[in-house]
Protein: G-D-S-L family lipolytic protein
Amino acid sequence: MKRTFNYSLPALALLGLTLGSCQPTLEDTRPAADAGSLNFSSYVAVGNSLTSGYSDGGLYNEAQAASYPAILAQQFAKTAKGPAAFVQPSFSAAKKDGSGYVQLRVVNGTTTPVQPSAANSFLGEQVAYTNNPAFPSELEAYTGSQPDNLGVPGISVLSADKTASASGNATVDAQTRGAAAAYGVLNNFYQRILPAADRGTKDYVTYIGQKTPTFFTCWMGNNDVLTFATNGGVASATNPFSGMTDTTSFGRGYRNILSTISKNGTVAGVAANIPNVTTIPYFNTVTVAAVAASFKAANPASPGVFITTGTAAAPVVRLATSADLLTLTTQGYIAAVVAAGGTAPGSLPTSPLPNNYVLDATEAAAVVARTTQLNAIIAKTARQNKVALADMNTFFTTIAQQGIVTNAVNNTATFASGNLFSLDGVHPTPRGYAVVANEFIRVINSYYGSAVPTVAPNDYRGVLFP
Structure:
């Protein structure tokens, strides 16, 4: 998923961003490298933005170089059975900033996240758009051989497979099948890695089937709930992939993906499941309590934060509770409306926060329930294809609850200052991706009896402060 994040100076005050002290880098104690029975010579990574290395709201060369598949390939090579090269669809050096990304900058004396754009040309971005950078825009085409990192930001199981839809609704099924086949002209990240002749006709399952891996990782399914969640539980009528994917479609699509890349269970690999997206900083940074406090500071009689729930046909306005989750972009949206002379959204029942800025308690519960259902399908399909399962749901939940210590440094899910999540509040930093890579390695070693060495996460950066 590619999302533009709008922040404001009041938002930074609310989030409490501060400059942190430098943290030490210590060496891990690493086992002797041994691939065991595994052959990593042709390692292929299948997945979405989390696989591509997407970070800070964009895909760019530095982030790609720290993707967890790139880190895995580096560690696999230490076993003497790793790939001679691991090909990623990087941008040219002149366009190294790719799709653009959020950066912390000092603006008018205050540290604030800034999204590169035409309006912020003073940042000197080397972005890779070939025309006006407004989605759907074309990115610089990748022209090398088919990459080994096949991560496509925004892709879901539903949008990956033109045969996957079987919801029972003929109109919806026809729409999603057709859109999956045409995904190369709907998603600019997928478009740029496809040969021109395949754009608009080759679905992702067919594309990954062109590879002949000796080992693979597959982390798919996040966007089958995440796209819906980050839009406040609101599906777009014009986007057939913006809702939560039904279990029938997901099951068929995921089975096709995993059987294709594992060559019907004959290739070793790891399938990862879907984290609980309600625990990520995107939903836990701008809180109802904090926004309510800002309203009360301006008006002591303020009763709290008014939100819109329900459906577009039957909207409901009510006061938010602590069980309702506000998006990371909420404070920036409020500040922008006020700066334009409007009433602060959420401060009055006649001016509530729009539905797409709130994942209300009912929607959050539905997202968690669907995630559980889809993860059951992932686990069963992994068993059927005789591959390991990386339980990223439990892993990320544990990090959200208690953080993770790497070489005596505590890392948490706190926005920006916690080291693990980037400035979009959804995707990891390079250090976060190193932590993810180590979890994949732990699962590989446990399941296959190998001894792939882990990486030292502190060698990788968190959020860059100016």
Remarks:
- The longest strand covers residues 43-47.
